[in-house]
Design a protein that fits this description.
The structure is a single chain. The chain is an alpha/beta fold and 512 residues long. It has helices spanning 21-24, 26-38, 52-55, 68-81, 87-93, 148-156, 161-168, 172-183, 198-201, 206-220, 239-244, 266-273, 289-301, 325-333, 347-350, 354-361, 437-455, 461-464, 478-486; strands spanning 13-17, 42-46, 59-61, 106-107, 110-111, 114-115, 120-121, 192-196, 230-232, 251-252, 256-257, 339-343, 366-371, 398-403, 412-415, 421-424, 493-495, 498-504. The protein folds into four domains: 1-95 and 158-235, Dimethylsulfoxide Reductase, domain 2; 241-314, no CATH class; 325-420 and 428-464, Rossmann fold; 487-512, no CATH class.
Length: 512
């Protein structure tokens, strides 16, 4: 969420698309009712189904599944055509005045730079026009045909109410009514919040759905304001927490992009990933990227990460392609991966094309499943009739189950949708042979490190030199990890105005 659950009470209009908050998030939905009762806000729901959220809405409009972008594009066109835009905000806080390169184009449904053979874009032409100092050229009048504002108006002019009706199935009158509700918050004294959930995020074009809604909120001036924002209603406990820790193939903790095989040196990597300001005197928080990266490497490798070895940059894996879950299972299906470890994940039930997922896992030599309970994935090799009609005798995959504790048997943190971190204590010990995830990972690592120390290997440094300074290396405590994530001073932090004055002594925890 860009705002917080509690902040919804400050909205004048609540739009729900791609979710069903009244049923799926009943505790959070109380803040919607708070806005309705005490602020006299309106609730608008756009959904293929007449949901429980729609049942309590002031207005409901139907939409065909998967046509959200066309609907939102129609809203943008209507807003631009009817001057329902917060122009002061747009000029001050968006890139509407920036000039785009002259060779950028959109034709026959494709942007310039499309490579049909690779089925991907070369985005070179999508860049801003720059002056000799490297700053983006702008037109404050928004009249230049190459400025973002004019290009946006041209692009979205095709999304007429009639086109929306044809594509989305939403009757024209109902679409226009929703557009009027949204447009009413373009004034400085009104604000709208959008609440979406897995109906948008778990979608073939989920990112585009959310980006389009973000564009609407920017045009309305509803980002960075109480009662506004583009707010994801998380679908599972602690999804926000795992997002913040960035346990994704393309990211490092701290929302830093992980290096690829094109980033041959730390200097190349830092240069490519450190953004430059687009305008004079523009705030550029991202300029600290090299410092963030060094802090992470020092946390992982301690004294072994030095300036002389580029902060152990060469010890990190370099991606040579996509490694998200869909790509990974495609590789497994092609026989390119021999073993797989699954922790808190049930792909046979969660991923599309169940038959292909099962066939892929049957090609593995071994599969490790870390779960509190048996799930479909751990028993993918069993025949359950029409529910999982496989031949066990033809599946050679060795399945190793490591029983884990559930959340109530392990202390730690949750991060809610509003990004507030909450600590909880264990209510009971793990049942049977169950162990906490920390102990399972701790034992795997310490045994792996011992094997490297004894037998060696082609490249042992990343394993042998990693910092693992826990009281019990085989079972790090949640408190130790929390302190590590919070960070500590590697050396005395001194006052920039008075270097003799130590603000934080070396080794001390930094303020949270």
């Amino acid at each position: 969420m860009t705002n917080h659950w509690v902040d919804i009470k400050n909205a004048d209009l609540i739009l729900i698309m791609g979710g069903n908050a009244a049923e799926a998030h009943p505790c959070g939905f109380k803040w919607v009712t708070e806005a309705l009762e005490h602020r006299k806000a309106k609730l608008v729901v756009v959904d293929p189904r007449f949901t429980r959220s729609a049942a309590v809405a002031d207005y409901y409009a139907p939409i065909r599944v998967g046509t959200d972008i066309a609907f939102l594009g129609g809203v943008i066109n209507w807003m631009l055509a009817n001057n329902k835009v917060h122009m002061d905000y747009v000029k001050a806080y968006t890139n509407a005045s920036f000039l785009i390169r002259d060779d950028f184009d959109f034709k026959d449904g494709l942007f310039s730079g499309y490579d049909e053979a690779k089925r991907s874009y070369d985005k070179t032409t999508w860049a801003y026009q720059l002056d000799k100092e490297g700053y983006a050229l702008v037109d404050e009048t928004l009249e230049n045909p190459r400025c973002v504002w004019q290009l946006m108006k041209s692009h979205y002019s095709r999304y007429t109410p009639e086109v929306v009706e044809k594509v989305c199935g939403t009757p024209k009158e109902q679409f226009l009514k929703v557009a009027e509700f949204i447009g009413s918050t373009s004034t400085p004294d009104k604000v709208m919040t959008i609440c979406y959930a897995l109906g948008w995020t778990q979608h073939s074009h989920g990112s585009q759905n959310i980006r389009t809604m973000a564009m609407i909120q920017l045009l309305l001036g509803n980002i960075g304001r109480a009662g506004g924002g583009v707010n994801a209603l998380r679908g599972h406990s602690n999804v926000q927490g795992i997002t913040d820790m960035c346990t994704f193939s393309a990211n490092l903790p701290g929302y830093m992009v992980a290096p690829t095989d094109a980033d041959t040196t730390f200097a190349d990597f830092a240069t490519r990933r450190t953004p430059k300001p687009l305008r004079p005197n523009q705030m550029n928080f991202g300029q600290n990227f090299p410092k963030w990266f060094v802090s992470l490497q020092k946390a992982w490798y301690g004294d072994a990460a030095t300036k002389e070895n580029d902060w152990a940059y060469d010890w990190l894996p370099k991606r040579d392609g996509a490694y998200d879950v869909m790509d990974t299972f495609e590789r497994i299906h092609q026989g390119k991966i021999n073993g797989f470890v699954m922790q808190g994940f049930n792909p046979l039930a969660a991923l599309p094309n169940k038959k292909k997922v099962g066939a892929a896992m049957a090609k593995l030599k071994w599969l490790v499943v870390i779960e509190p309970l048996k799930n479909e994935t751990s028993e993918f090799w069993k025949n359950y009739g029409e529910l999982n009609n496989v031949k066990p005798e033809e599946i050679a995959t060795e399945v190793i189950r490591l029983p884990a504790s559930c959340f109530a048997e392990d202390p730690g943190t949750f991060t809610n949708s509003g990004r507030v971190i909450q600590w909880h204590w264990a209510g009971a010990d793990p049942a049977g042979e169950g162990k906490t995830d920390r102990e399972i990972i701790g034992q795997i690592f310490t045994r792996l490190r011992a094997a490297y120390a004894k037998d060696g290997g082609k490249f042992p440094d990343p394993v042998l030199k990693v910092t693992w300074a826990y009281a019990n290396p085989s079972h790090p405590s949640a408190e130790e990890i929390l302190r590590e994530v919070n960070g500590r001073a590697l050396k005395d932090v001194t006052d920039p105005k008075d270097p003799t004055k130590v603000l934080v002594p070396a080794g001390q925890q930094l303020p949270g």
